[in-house]
Structure formats: structure tokens, C-alpha cells
Design a protein that fits this description.
six-stranded mixed β-sheet, single chain, alpha/beta, two-stranded antiparallel sheet
């Protein structure tokens, strides 16, 4: 991760409120976890300058870490748009992977054409535990696609995510992470010194925090 890029991404996400921090009024995730942070990177799509910067940095990250793949894949639904933008920038084919098969029509779970032995980089908007992201990776592998790795806009940096990716033998890189985001939020006055302990404690044990 390039530190200057990570700081800029963090500043952008905070500026447009794609990331919201509420240490004293936590959010509830779909998983049931209580969280002092909520991240919705889809908001970046509404800001052309920021959208373009993210697209350029994701494309650069892919080429620097993986070379030029044959295919870009996005994880539905949040990373479909980001993935298509990056595929367009690199002039590559694009597909996306659903969390489950459609219940009608062709009942596809992978939308778009994929072929055995195609090399692929998967794009995710953010990584929490990595479970849903890695499900997409396994589905592509089952079709014979050679997944070189994954890139994301943001990662929470959970230990469980690092272990899950290690177990799946899948490398991943992110433009920005939780530590840098919190630091930038502190510098911009969006996080008080008194909130830092709460924010860092949550990251160490998110499943139990707030219970």
C-alpha cells in the first residue's frame, strides 16, 4: 500500500461521508456485529473526481502487484461498478460474481464470459472478514479461472480476514486501511483523542464488542 495514496483515499472517504464514525452510537451490521464505523464506498460513484482517482489507483495497484490479467471480476453488488470502471481503464473483459445464483432465467452466479486458464484479479469495495469475497474467488476457481489475487478500496484489517485469505491461498491488497483512516480522521478533527481507545478496541474483537 502506498501511504500517500492511502491517506488521500481516507481523506476522500471521510470528506464525502462514505465512512461514518460514531463511537458512542454504534451501528449494527447485517451480521449482527455492533460497530463504531460504517463504510459505504458506493457513495464514491457519485463524485466523478474521487471515482476517477479510485479507478486509476486500483488499476495501478493491479498492474504493479499482478501484472496484466486476462480478466477483471467484481464481487456483487458493491464492487460491480468499481470493477467495470477498472476493466474499462485497463481495456480488459469484465464479469461479476453473485453471492448466490439467480432464481430465474439462466440462474447464473457468474455474469459475463469466463474461460478455463484465464488469469483474473478480483475487485472488492471493502474487506471485513473476507468470507463473501473469498466465496467469489472459489466460484471463479471452480470454473477453471486462475485467480491471481484481490484488490479493494478499503480493509478493516481484522485478524480473521488475514487468516481467511491465508487459508484460501489468496493474496490481497487494499488502497486504504482502518489504521490510516482513523489517523486521518483524528488529524481532521472528526475523531477525538478520547474516542481512540474505543475505536481500536473494536477492531481487536469486533464480534464481541458492544455486547
Amino acid at each position: 500500500m502506498e501511504r500517500d495514496t492511502a491517506k488521500l483515499i481516507a481523506d476522500h472517504l471521510l470528506q464525502i461521508k462514505a465512512v461514518k464514525l460514531q463511537p458512542n452510537e454504534p451501528y449494527t451490521w447485517a451480521s449482527g456485529w455492533k460497530s463504531p464505523i460504517y463504510c459505504d464506498n458506493r457513495i464514491t460513484l457519485s463524485y466523478p473526481r474521487i471515482r476517477t482517482f479510485i479507478r486509476q489507483e486500483l488499476a495501478k495497484l493491479i498492474e504493479n502487484k499482478f501484472g496484466r490479467p486476462d480478466l477483471i471480476a467484481g464481487v456483487a453488488t458493491a464492487a460491480i461498478a468499481q470493477g467495470a470502471l477498472v476493466a474499462e481503464a485497463l481495456g480488459l473483459p469484465f464479469c461479476y460474481v453473485r453471492p448466490k445464483s439467480k432464481e430465474h432465467g439462466l440462474k447464473n452466479q457468474i455474469e459475463g464470459e469466463v474461460s478455463p486458464n484465464q488469469s483474473c484479479v478480483v475487485i472488492e469495495d471493502l474487506i471485513s472478514t473476507g468470507s463473501s469475497s473469498l466465496q467469489a474467488v472459489e466460484l471463479l476457481k471452480a470454473e477453471g479461472v486462475v485467480v491471481k489475487g484481490m484488490v479493494s478500496i478499503f480493509t478493516y484489517g481484522f485478524n480473521i480476514a488475514e487468516q481467511n485469505f491465508k487459508n484460501a491461498n489468496c493474496v490481497f491488497y487494499s488502497l486504504c486501511n482502518y489504521d490510516i483512516l482513523i489517523k486521518q480522521a483524528q488529524l481532521s478533527g472528526q475523531v477525538k483523542e478520547s474516542d481512540l481507545r474505543t475505536l481500536m478496541a473494536w477492531r481487536q474483537n469486533p464480534a464481541e464488542w458492544g455486547k
